[in-house]
Every structure is written in structure tokens, then in C-alpha cells.
Amino acid sequence: MSKLSTCLSTLALATLCSLGFVHSASANTTTAVSIAKSSPTFLGDGGTYPFSEAVRVGNTLYMSGQIGFKDGKLVKGGIKAETKQVLDNIHITLLKYGYRKSDIVKCMVMLTDMDDFDDFNKVYKSEMIKPYPVRSAFGVSELAAGASVEIECMAAK
Question: Where are the annotated coiled coils located (predicted)?
């Protein structure tokens, strides 16, 4: 090949590459990224208290904390009975909004006595489904209505 044809070939290749670069660069700036946004849906009215029972955002359900209430009163029987009732209340809330225990991804536990942690875990383990959700546990000085345990969960489909 002559110097002229080598030079023309190089020029043509450079032109095509630069056109491709310009085209791909402009294509990237004009492509719109669409992010689905979902407005919160507030569920349940909390009864006489100023909070929602749950809030759904997209496929995630954020539930208010539950204590061991049954028929408007705190169940008797200590930490084990309260924990069982709390988890039953959470299950009822999940079902009400179309979720299951296996949809729970996170729980936050509050205990008024950290010495109850082992008894709490025995009931929790028997009531929850593997793989267990991620969880935090905190010792608190007091809970509403004199409860020993409160659990707040998030579920996702």
C-alpha cells in the first residue's frame, strides 16, 4: 500500500471512530433513566392513637410496633406470653395487608428487661420462619401499657 492509501485508511478509521464516539456519547445523554416511585399508602388508623397501623411503599410494608395486646388488654403470663401475642398480632397485620411471616425482612425488638432475652428468643425462634429476618434488640426503661416487649417489623415481597 502506498503512503497515501495508508494515510486515507487511517483517516477514514479515525473519522468512523470519532463519529461512533460522538453518537454513543450523545445517545447516553439523551437516554432517560426511569425510576419507579411509589407514594406511601397509610393503612389502618391506629384506633385512638395518633399513628397508622402500617405504611406500604412499593412492595415494602412498614409496621408500627406491636405489644402483647389481646381484646384491648395486655396478656398475662410474662415475657413468653407477651412475645407470643406480639408475634400473633404481627401475623394478623401481615395477613390483613396481603403479606406472610416469610415476607418479614427486619424486626426491631424492645425489651424492658434484657434478662428476658433468652426467654424472648425461645418464643421468637418457635414462631418465626427460617431464614430469620435481620433483627436488632434494645433494652428500654419502659413501654406503653406496661408491656415487657414491643416488636416493630418491615416486610417486603
Answer: none
Position 67 in a domain: yes
Domain count, the chain: 1
Neighbours of 33 (CB within 10 A): 4
Q: Cell numbers 391506629 label which residue?
A: 46
pTM of the model: 0.75
pLDDT at 94 over 60: yes
Strand ranges, E, within the chain: 41-43, 54-57, 60-63, 69-70, 73-74, 104-111, 134-139, 149-156
Task: Please write the tens of the pLDDT for every residue from 28-67.
Answer: 555 555 566 789 999 987 777 789 999 999 999 999 999 9
Pick the closest to residue 127 from 76, 96, 87, 85 (CA basis).
87
